[in-house]
Design a protein that fits this description.
GO terms for molecular function: 1-alkyl-2-acetylglycerophosphocholine esterase activity. By secondary structure, the chain is of the alpha/beta class. About 40% of the residues lie in helices and about 15% in strands. The chain contains six helices and five strands; from the N terminus they run ααβαββαβααβ. Strands 1-2-3-4-5 form a five-stranded mixed beta sheet. Strand 1, helix 3 and strand 2 form a beta-alpha-beta unit. Helix 2 crosses helix 3. The two termini are about 20 Å apart.
Length: about 200
C-alpha cells in the first residue's frame, strides 16, 4: 500500500502531467454548474411560472470521474452548494490545495482503496469515504448496465452497483440536506457487505 505522501504525489504528478485542458476542466465545469444555479434562481422568481417551486437553499452536487472533481470544485467556489459527492474522481486542480467546507462524500472503486485519509484531509466537515469492492471506474457509468461485456468493468453486477450508488447517494443528501438520517452512513451494513465506509 502507498504511504500518505506517495498517494499525494500520485495526484500532484498526474495533475502536472495531464493536458492543460483536463486540469482546467473541473473549473470550467464548476462555472457551468454555478451558471445553472444562477438560471434556476432567475426562474424561481416571482415573474416565472416556476416561482417558489424550487428549494435552492439545499443544493447538492455530485458527479462521476471529472464530474466528481467538478463537484468538489463547485463546493470550493460556490457556497450555494451545501453538500457534494465525488464518484471515483480522485483529487486534482484546486482540490489539491483547498479544503472543502461542506459535507462531502468520496464514493470510489477499488483503485482508490486505502486513500481514505488523504481524501478526508481535503474536507473540513463531515466526510465519508466509501470503497465499493468489485467495482472499477466504469462501473459508475451507464455501461455497467448497458454493456456488461465492456472489458473495463469490475466484477460487481451492474444492477447491484446501481442500487449501491442510489442508496448511498440518497442517504447522504437526505442526511445533509433534509436532516433525515437513515443510519446507512453510520458504518458497515450487512445489506451491503461489498461497501467499505469510513466516516470522519
Amino acid at each position: 500500500a502507498k504511504s500518505y505522501e506517495e498517494q499525494e504525489a500520485v495526484f500532484r504528478q498526474s495533475n502536472e502531467l495531464m493536458p492543460k485542458l483536463l486540469v482546467e476542466s473541473p473549473r470550467i465545469w464548476a462555472d457551468d454548474i454555478s451558471f445553472l444555479i444562477d438560471e434556476l434562481e432567475n426562474i424561481n422568481q416571482d415573474n416565472s411560472i416556476f416561482a417558489g417551486k424550487m428549494n435552492l437553499e439545499q443544493i447538492g452536487v455530485f458527479g462521476m470521474s471529472m464530474g466528481g472533481i467538478a463537484s468538489g470544485q463547485v463546493c470550493i467556489t460556490d457556497k450555494r452548494c451545501m453538500a457534494g459527492i465525488n464518484m471515483d474522481g480522485g483529487i486534482y486542480g484546486d482540490f489539491l490545495d483547498t479544503k472543502i467546507s461542506q459535507p462531502f462524500m468520496f464514493m470510489s472503486s477499488e483503485r482508490y482503496r486505502g486513500y481514505d485519509n488523504i481524501f478526508s484531509d481535503h474536507v473540513n466537515n463531515s466526510v465519508y469515504t466509501i470503497t465499493i469492492h468489485g467495482a472499477d471506474h466504469y462501473n459508475f457509468h451507464d455501461l455497467s448496465i448497458l454493456d456488461p461485456s465492456f472489458d473495463r468493468l469490475g466484477e460487481i453486477d451492474g444492477y447491484r452497483m446501481l442500487k449501491i450508488i442510489n442508496d448511498y447517494t440518497l442517504a447522504f443528501f437526505n442526511k445533509h440536506l433534509k436532516e433525515i438520517d437513515s443510519g446507512l452512513l453510520n458504518g458497515p451494513s450487512s445489506e451491503y457487505p461489498e461497501v467499505e465506509i469510513k466516516v470522519k
